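Kindly inspect what follows.
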Amino acid sequence: MMTKDELREQLLETFAHAPTLEFLFLAETLRDAATFYTEVETFGLLIGYVKRAGGDSWIWKRGVEDYAVHLNGTRSPVDAETFDPFVFVDAHAILSKPVVPRRWLLPGIIADGLSIVGGSPKGGKTYLAYALAMAVAHYGKWCNHWDVDQGKVIYVSLEDDENDTHLRLKELDASFTISAGKLLFVHGSQSLPAFGSGLLEWVEQVLDLHKPRLLIIDPISYLYVLKRTGGQFEETKDMLFPLRWLGRHYQCAIVCLDHRRKRSREDVSMVDTLYGSVAKQAVADGLIMVNRDGDDIELDLTIRAGKTQKLYISFVFAEGQCYLAYKGVEEHAASYSDVRTQVIEAVYAAAEPLAIADILAVLHLPDTRQTRNNVSQILYRHVKTKEIEKTNRGRYAKGEGR
């Protein structure tokens, strides 16, 4: 019979070399390796770990470590006659505990766990992430509007080097200084392992040692390549779900930036332009889609236990400085037909001709290039049908055709 140390090494080697073994084959392998230390107890524990893992080798490995601790006698022995090999949590026990409120880094937008920020290259998402890091580590307010929970920040920048980071920080605030230990950077993809090669262990060690309030990975797509030997959903879920668990367990908001492709006619929403979007919607605590239009940024939010809304931020470069400022919110995005009806009603109800800015104010719409273009297009179409008249001063009134 193997010693306990030999058994531990055999189990670790089994997991390391065969992370995708079918359950029965794995169980049979472990049966041979363990030669059944108190048979029911050993086999039941291993079944529980594998079922809990759901096929994720990283969690399997953690299960083996826990099992080794059990074998070393630091846990109370399990009664073989009453041992239940399945991992259940009784509803009675769940209901006997108080509900733990969700912990927010940025109330209603970014919670402990995993949030994904998707956007096209040069779309402003990295500047938004740098500004968030500076807010959490130093200012306490993001985009001069939202209060954030403060604490240490670790920023994994896979595209920038130290010089790039210096420039971005000074672009956002020319006078920015910060005490040592509050905002830490990791630069380059060679500075940390990829998914499947130790990334999750690296993240857990960082969270355990440094206890950051915010961890940013920019961009997450550099750290994984879908094998395409199985389903894209399963591969993406298996990579990202442990990040969500780590964020919640260590009370850290993990924000991963991600590139998106160009939107096509088949895409129902902007979220669909993320690679593996279905899995990311299922796993992430929040999806924040960044859409830049000139000097405006639209943030399309899908937040677990939060609101689905659109936020508008100005994004202006002037004399080497980057300025980010809150512009407005659209909590219930109206359809085009609804907006058209509202625009017409606003013009007809006005005592005097209205400019586009007046219409936006009446309808409580954010004054952005996109909303101006939408309203302008509606007005143009109704001017052609003479339902609305355009005055010489660029204002709009009720037309003859109405």
About this structure: Residues 104-330 form a domain with the Rossmann fold fold (CATH 3.40.50.300). Residues 232-249 form the longest helix (18 residues). Residues 113 and 249 are 8 Å apart (CA to CA). The two ends are 93 Å apart (CA to CA).
